[in-house]
Fold:
Amino acid sequence: VQVTLEHDAQRRTATLRLRQHCPVVGVETQLGLQEKPPLHIPVAVGLLKQDGSALPLRLAAAESSPSARVVADDTMLLELTEREAQWTFADVAEPPVPSLLRDFSAPVIVEYDASDDELALRLAHDPNAFARWEAGQELATRYILRTAAAIQNSAALPGLKQLEQAWLSVLTDVAVDPAWQARALSLPGERLLADRMNPIDPQALARARDHVQMKLGSALAEHWQRLVNEALAPKPYSPDPLSAGLRALRHTALTYGLASGADHAIADAAQLFREADNMTECMAALSGLLSFAPEHAATGGALADFYQRWEHDPLVIDKWFAMQATARPTEVHHVEALMQHPAFQLRNPNRARALIFQFCLNHPRGFHQADGSGYQFWLRQVLALDALNPEIAARLARALEQFRRYASPWLEAQQTALEQVQRQPDLSRNVTEIIAKALEISS
Structure:
């Protein structure tokens, strides 16, 4: 849904235009369709003043249409049923900032050219939790992508002052739910970021995200440490939502502390692991140590202790493997070493998913190595699994189906690996279909 907003200072009105577009795909292209008919799309919107306060919404007299209804003083639900429609709001004295798709009112992609200032304002003041979170994720995504572009071009890295201030506005907001804060303060993952990069440079993206995370960790160190100290304070475990949200927020703070390289961060994580009386905190501490202090003695001790404590629970040991498979420093040789562990069995689908699938599908920086080692590892595992369980092998085969979106040398290395699999004799129909489709789409 494309969105444009025009403000008329003389008439004190703001006109919001929505235009929908749904490209044809698959069989629809074979039928000769040019574009799908309009869908019924409910779009919940609000308008914010330049100081962040919410505007009460009222349609201009000529716009009293059944295609819009007020659901709150500051939110109106617009029913987009045609290709294009517009609504004019009255009593808007200054250019407003639109708050779009509140509460995720429809599963659509909104295209609106918001400025960084607008996103920062919405993150700080938007009364709608979803719209506020979405603004922060978009702002962080832009800064990470700009940093990645600078890394690719060997240019000076952009400053992050505005992002730091935006994050601070969330950190110091005592009125919001801590579980929401934890999500709002978490950076977008590398897989989501890759969707916004064309062509994809996975290593520049990983370095850029690390840089932004480190800078936010350093700039807001005092606030992160306050939350970590609260996590370390002795308290009885409680599964209620508020306590769970506080734990999630403190784990986010611990991650930023570790990312900043603060001297005390590793000791804090080790202490949390030792003193935690619940698995959530144990795993959060161990995950942080694996990602930011893999060679530290405390990490090795915690890793062994966790395994010994839970070795008789298969689901927990799956998590133990998955944590290592997706830790920041993990590369192919680490995964191959873990495959030699007595608890790993390739014939066990859950164990294969926990280690091999997690590495290939959910750890872009380790999997997408410029030398192609990750793709050759993928090739070997696809073939090994195909001999045991073709359905599982076919799911793993899909790890490279988007290879054309990558820059060189990742594109060529992935294509080579796909072609090597395709040439294998006695390949199952399951894997053959996935590989053939990937290569056919790319041609």
